[in-house]
Amino acid sequence: MRKLYDFYILASRRNGTLYIGITNDLGRRVRERREGLIEGFTRRYAVNRLVYFETFQDVSAAIHRKTRLKKWKRQWKIESIRTDNLEWIDLYQKVAMA
Question: Which of 2, 14, 19, 43 has the smallest number of Cβ neighbours within 10 A?
Fold first, then answer.
């Protein structure tokens, strides 16, 4: 069985603080962030709403996507989120059930 890797964006609220990451278990990682189990940026700024994600079969592609988006201007990131998730709905339930 081949592993999948997810590139994801978390937000504190609509148009709020953003966090970009990658993981091989999106449901677990978002749950850890939501419950404040991981110290650091996301816990300090309450960044725990999953607003965007993409799935890759190759970890290098996921890392490349993360690296590229981290260099984007904030407004470009917001527009990218709005393209797929206009209302900034928390997508956690979608991945937690998978």
Answer: 2
Nearest CA-CA partner of 29 in 66, 83, 2, 68: 66
Q: Residue 1: its pLDDT value, please?
A: 65
pTM of the predicted model as reported, rounded to 2 decimal places: 0.93
Model confidence over 66-80: pLDDT tens digits?
999 999 999 999 999
